[in-house]
Amino acid sequence: MTSTDNMAKGTTDKPGGGRGGENMKKNQKTIVFLHPDLGIGGAERLVVDAAVGLQRRGCKVVIFTSHCDPGHCFDEARDGTLDVRVRGNTIVPPSILGRFSILCAILRQIHLILSITIFSSELSEINPSGFFIDQLSAGLPLLSLLRPQTPIFFYCHFPDLLLVQNRNSSLFKRLYRVPFDALEQWSMGFATSTAVNSNFTKSIVAKTWPGYPADTLKIVYPCINTSLPSPDKETEPIKWGGQSEKSIILSINRFERKKNIALAIRAFALLPGPTRQKSKLVVAGGYDPRVHENVSYHADLAGLCEKLGLKSATVKTVVSALNSSIEDVDVLFLLSVPNALKEILLKSARLLVYTPEEEHFGIVPLEAMLRGVPVLAADSGGPLETVVEGRTGWLRPGEPEKWMEVMERVVDRMGEGELKKMGEEGKRRVRENFAETEMARQLEEIFEEVEGVDTKGAGILGLALVILAGIMGVIGVGVGLWLVKTPAERL
């Protein structure tokens, strides 16, 4: 795919879909999204849902991204529902020798902005009413300089400097990050309006950047599509080897160490023998064989199962997942499950375990609750705002014994009536508080509030910041290249 290709041509017969919707308002807003990599993840799911929601409310939506693989993106990004355009993907790679990811991401964002403003008239022809930018704020000063009359809305999922923080990093690597961390805080100030995904993230922003006016941050919760057909009508429970007596305890997360999947395995291993024999822990999630952490963490988890005396198996397809040969395994690893299989898993699960601690939000608990599955989650971060203790699930500290107690209760001591009641409460909570219609309404209100407001810091200050960012980028490259050398080479 070249930088001039469109992921989707945007022509669709759906009302309000793509660029040819029949039911658009006469004075419709045109919202342009800028997102680094429109793949598969929580941030990407939010962007897609926000775009679809605004489109359904009569807005015209165009998404510009530096990368979108048709084989690794959400359906709406490739089936014509959304107008997705790949730009700024021809000069700067995502990384250099596996390093400099943040520097490359910033340069790719700047390249994307220049591609649609300076190198072509594409953005002028669209004439956006507002910008929706998330994840990366470095390009805001440049955008504010080039389009001072167009308000910018920035969505902060979580401070990037905390997402990449590693206590084991060398002093030099921490120094390498300093200019980029400073740029993150400073560039966010160029947004006309900024929102975060939870009260938890708002509190973290206040602690991370004491000088940032955190009280001005809006809270816009991520959403899920509650208008999908009922899973009860679309799927059937999994029958392992033709039998359905196994109680499925389900974990859905990317294979990353910060997701703490090992907690679920350790807790499952503590279950009494009879309870464990009639249960199965299914660990499903995002897995990319090109990502070293995905590969190594999956291997670590499989090794942990062996150490704890649990029989495990790893499968990659729906057919393999339903094969009778895996009926007797204790822990089943499913790598990068497609939506159809995820729906089957959620339909079949008796309990969803969500193990990350201090997760800034977490969309998986909402997906489970919408389908009537109780949730066991860590008692920190976003789940504190989504899961209601004793009503839609349970919140527990990261101690395997505490998690085992809930697992045992759900499998052995909760009747179907009690589970159904909790499931209905979960469905109701999601539909009332986290529906895609609510997020779209909030976003449209924000764009109405900032309509006609110039971007902050346009003009000479914006230019100065862009120049400063360039200087810091050069410094970052120098420090980074120095880090690649061995200690002997540095002398």
From TrEMBL:
Mannosylates Man(2)GlcNAc(2)-dolichol diphosphate and Man(1)GlcNAc(2)-dolichol diphosphate to form Man(3)GlcNAc(2)-dolichol diphosphate. This is Alpha-1,3/1,6-mannosyltransferase ALG2. GO terms for molecular function: GDP-Man:Man(1)GlcNAc(2)-PP-Dol alpha-1,3-mannosyltransferase activity; GDP-Man:Man(2)GlcNAc(2)-PP-Dol alpha-1,6-mannosyltransferase activity. Pathway: Protein modification; protein glycosylation. The chain crosses the membrane at residues 460-484. Keywords: Endoplasmic reticulum, Glycosyltransferase, Membrane, Transferase, Transmembrane, Transmembrane helix. Pfam families: Glyco_transf_4, Glycos_transf_1. Belongs to the glycosyltransferase group 1 family. It is an enzyme of class 2 (transferase). Residues 233-428 form the Glycosyl transferase family domain. It catalyses: a beta-D-Man-(1->4)-beta-D-GlcNAc-(1->4)-alpha-D-GlcNAc-diphospho-di-trans,poly-cis-dolichol + GDP-alpha-D-mannose = an alpha-D-Man-(1->3)-beta-D-Man-(1->4)-beta-D-GlcNAc-(1->4)-alpha-D-GlcNAc-diphospho-di-trans,poly-cis-dolichol + GDP + H(+); an alpha-D-Man-(1->3)-beta-D-Man-(1->4)-beta-D-GlcNAc-(1->4)-alpha-D-GlcNAc-diphospho-di-trans,poly-cis-dolichol + GDP-alpha-D-mannose = an alpha-D-Man-(1->3)-[alpha-D-Man-(1->6)]-beta-D-Man-(1->4)-beta-D-GlcNAc-(1->4)-alpha-D-GlcNAc-diphospho-di-trans,poly-cis-dolichol + GDP + H(+). SUPFAM superfamilies: UDP-Glycosyltransferase/glycogen phosphorylase. Its main location: endoplasmic reticulum.
